[in-house]
Amino acid sequence: MTVTISRLYDDYATASRVVNDLELAGVPHADISIVASNADNWYSPTATGRTTTAAATSRATGRVDRDHDGVDDRAEGAGTGAGIGAVVGGGAGLLTGLGLMAIPGVGPVVAAGWLVSTAVGALAGGATGGVIGALTQTGVSDEDAQVYAEGVRRGGSLVTVRVPDADRGRVEAMLDRSAVNIATRRDAYRKSGWSRFDEKAPAFTSDQVRRERELYGTRL
User: Fold this and answer.
1) Residues ≥6 apart with Cβ < 8 Å to 167
2) What are the tens digits of pLDDT across the range 100-113?
């Protein structure tokens, strides 16, 4: 039996480390997805088809250069106007297939992996939030899915993994190392007046994302 595990992280750098660790541990990149907020424009495609990630470079864990061409593979993965075909995932590793897209209520995101295709299908079918529809289809509770979507809206990154049930404990241990405590974060959101993810809410600005991260002690 296959199980789906999701975890929220406060920034892309942390989430990308987790993705790399999962791949090094033998989890196929086809079974991993990442959806990261781009509200602060850390990921910006250029006219050359390369990606300018000066702000992200200082946050990232180091160069990913599996094809040894001297360019970070994560930067190569997204050309100008990258669509769903670019975000499903590349051959060398999940992060080589990053692409830009927009999710109602979340705003601009950088994403790759199978959950992205499911989210786009959910949107086409009218499911609320896209990401919420995709998560609930895989067995995530609606209550948790609401917080995951809101967390990405506020600048976070969501990593979702499909694994055999026998590997669940091992993979959860890896995911939990730097993950947000979803119950604690839900309570914090509710204390500020939040109740549910609203796909009609305005996307967060870069200043709002910065303040949100400072609120939870994230320094980038």
Assistant:
1) 27
2) 888 888 889 999 99
